[in-house]
Design a protein that fits this description.
The complex is a heterodimer of chains A (206) and B (187). Chain A is of the alpha/beta class and 206 residues long. Chain A is built from seven helices and eleven strands. Chain A is rod-shaped, with a radius of gyration of 47 Å. Chain B has 187 residues and is mostly helical. Chain B has helices spanning 3-13, 19-39, 42-58, 69-87, 92-110, 118-135, 139-150, 155-162, 166-184. In chain B, helix 1 packs across helix 2, helix 3 packs across helix 4 (69-87) and helix 4 packs across helix 8. The model of chain B is unreliable at 91-113 (pLDDT under 50). Classes of the chains: A alpha/beta (206), B mainly alpha (187). Chain B: This is RNA polymerase sigma factor SigW. Chain B: It comes from Geomicrobium sediminis.
């Protein structure tokens, strides 16, 4: 074995007692190996003598303030759940969207002014917020009133719809089509939905 | 392993960020020391060791509880140090002088007192000179020498930290030791 190898084995702490004694004996008679041995020993001692360094002040604080914001476990669980149930999440988002839309429309409407759609001779009583179809008058088509009451003394040949109001029918009054009162959010929503579908389907007319 | 550390790691995994401060406090000196010996100056040592803790935090889920935490942490720190050294490799030899001076700053930073006794200044300069010699070693031999002789780690642990076979680690220790012997024999 080369002597430099045995010196390495010595400093790796891999030599047996017998091997160490053999090495020591060799070193006594070989100045080259002795020098090598001394130099390795010195360099290890020098490196080991290098004092221990401490982290700078505020190191922990600096690390803590540099940490990325980590979500709590709960959020992670929710994320996992939502990944596994995309349809439910989509439905929930849709519902949320719809209900906020409905709410906006509904609140926007109930505070709003009276709106009338329909063609014919009717009177509008602004003070009482009432649409009056006088006796003898005929509304040929549909009549829709929002945010107001309807007092039917004459005739309506189409449908009468009252949203966010009430309809009164005089004994002489007549409505040929359907009468609908929509006061609750849900029934209003139902009405809107029905409207949407009847507008979409072409064979609804007649 | 210590119950204390396991408890902290569990809390960090559960999202209790504050528990991580205790881990940083416990390991900051060791990590900083390895980083400083590797990169050779205080500023980069601070960057590297801070980054090492941030990576440990963000990857805490990947830490295998059955293994030694310090091994895992040292592995992150040495990898970051070696990456840092590779990036500045082109101007390595040109920078040797500057690195030495920065090393001095690193030691100066240790001493909080404004006026140092003469012998302490001499010690600091001497320490800086040793670091300067370490800085001239190629990164892989440097890492081997630092972990073996400054951190007093076993070849097995070094092999896990450096992700190298034990035999390779041993060779790196031998070569690093030989290189240092030649540099330091004139001392």
């Amino acid at each position: 074995m080369k002597h430099s190898d045995s010196i390495h084995r010595y400093f790796d702490g891999e030599m047996t007692q017998i091997e160490r004694e053999q090495l020591y004996r060799h070193l006594e008679g070989c100045s080259e190996c002795q020098e090598h041995y001394d130099e390795v020993k010195k360099s290890i001692a020098l490196v080991q003598s290098a004092s221990h360094i401490q982290a700078p002040k505020n190191f922990t604080e600096n690390v803590m303030s540099a940490l990325p914001q980590k979500k709590k476990k709960r959020t992670i669980a929710w994320k996992k759940w939502s990944k596994n149930h995309p349809v439910l999440v989509a439905a929930a988002v849709f519902l949320l969207f719809m209900s906020s839309m409905t709410w906006l429309n509904w609140t926007g409407m109930s505070g709003g002014e009276m709106a009338i759609s329909g063609v014919g001779n009717f009177e509008v009583d602004q003070e009482n917020n009432t649409v009056i179809i006088p006796e003898g008058e005929v509304i040929e088509g549909d009549l829709t009133v929002r945010n107001g009451d309807v007092d039917v003394q004459g005739e309506v040949h189409g449908d009468l719809t009252v949203i966010n109001g009430e309809q009164y029918m005089a004994s002489a009054g007549q409505v040929a089509g359907n009468i609908e009162e929509v006061n609750q959010v849900l029934s209003w929503l139902w009405y809107e939905t029905k409207e949407l579908f009847s507008n979409l389907s072409p064979d609804q007319e007649d | 392993m210590d119950d204390w550390l396991n408890q902290c790691i569990r809390e960090v995994k559960a999202g209790e960020t504050e528990a991580f401060a205790q881990i940083v406090d416990a390991y900051k000196d060791k990590v900083y020391q390895v980083a400083f010996r590797m990169v050779g100056n205080a500023q980069e040592a601070q960057d590297v060791s801070q980054e090492a803790f941030i990576r440990a935090y963000t990857n805490i889920e990947r830490y295998d509880v059955n293994r030694k935490f310090s091994t895992w942490l040292f592995r992150i720190a040495t990898n970051l140090s070696i990456d840092r050294l590779r990036k500045k490799k082109p101007d390595f030899s040109l920078d040797a002088e500057v690195n030495g001076a920065e090393g001095l700053d690193g030691y100066a930073q240790l001493a909080a007192t404004d006026a140092l006794p003469d012998e302490q200044v001499v010690t600091l300069e001497w320490q800086a000179s040793i670091q300067k010699e370490i800085d001239t070693l190629p990164p892989k031999y440097r890492a081997a020498i630092i972990l073996k002789y400054m951190e007093d780690l076993s070849l097995q642990e070094m092999s896990e930290i450096l992700d190298l076979p034990v035999a390779t680690v041993k060779t790196h220790v031998h070569r690093g030791r030989e290189a240092l012997r030649k540099k330091l024999k004139k001392w």
